[in-house]
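sry for the spam today, last one i promise. struct tokens for design, 231 residues
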């Protein structure tokens, strides 16, 4: 199906399927998933637990490969790239925010945000990271370690890190899942403010109806299939 303006989509899934082998035999997680995401769009992927949401997000981001169909990210077919090639494409085009924050415990907030910038050889990584942390309201917490931060503060550090390289696409897997309702609402607002400021495409897996409603589009999975795609 064609969605958004008629331009090269930033992400596309074409007839995507995913099967895994188990002791009981082959298990089909995704089947014939087909959609396109335009640059700058915000998309929520929803469905009950076990419907294939996180598996699909991982495939779209090139963290795994489909067993059927093809996926393109920023104009490149992930199926055609080896693991190193997919890693390079992710580093250049994608940011990630996870339910579990995934900050490095031995690094300060500033160092966690600096890390992708330093790995990419970006000059003045410290000042750029500090600006991002100020943008997410953590200018007084630069030297704090993750264990010294609340869950909401840790997620804000993770968001600053995700936006550090100005990604074309931000993939988020249950970004409010470990947060109370009020903190989750602040995180949602922050994601969409940065989306608007930077034109970053948002693709979010969520159980949070408030987060899904904020997106321009909601794709619903049931038993590994797309059953609705609503704007």
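last one done:
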């Amino acid at each position: 199906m064609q969605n958004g303006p008629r331009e090269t989509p930033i992400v596309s899934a074409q007839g995507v399927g995913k099967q895994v082998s188990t002791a009981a035999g082959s298990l089909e997680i995704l089947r014939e998933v087909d959609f396109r995401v335009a640059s700058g769009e915000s998309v929520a992927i929803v469905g009950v637990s076990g419907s294939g949401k996180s598996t699909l997000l991982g495939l779209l981001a090139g963290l795994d490969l489909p067993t059927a169909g093809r996926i393109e990210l920023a104009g490149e077919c992930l199926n055609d790239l080896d693991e190193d090639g997919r890693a390079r494409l992710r580093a250049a085009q994608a940011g990630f925010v996870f339910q579990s924050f995934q900050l490095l415990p031995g690094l300060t907030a500033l160092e966690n945000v600096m890390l992708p910038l330093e790995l990419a050889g970006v000059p003045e990584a410290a000042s750029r990271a500090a600006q991002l942390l100020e943008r997410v309201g953590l200018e007084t917490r630069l030297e704090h370690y993750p264990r010294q931060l609340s869950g909401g503060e840790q997620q804000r550090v993770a968001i600053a890190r995700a936006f550090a390289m100005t990604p074309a696409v931000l993939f988020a897997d249950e970004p409010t899942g470990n947060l109370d309702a009020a903190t989750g609402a602040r995180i949602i607002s922050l994601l969409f403010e940065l989306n608007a400021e930077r034109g970053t495409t948002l693709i979010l897996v969520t159980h949070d109806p408030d987060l899904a409603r904020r997106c321009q589009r909601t794709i619903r999975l049931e038993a590994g299939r797309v059953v609705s795609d609503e704007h």
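The chain has a mean pLDDT of 92. ok im logging off now
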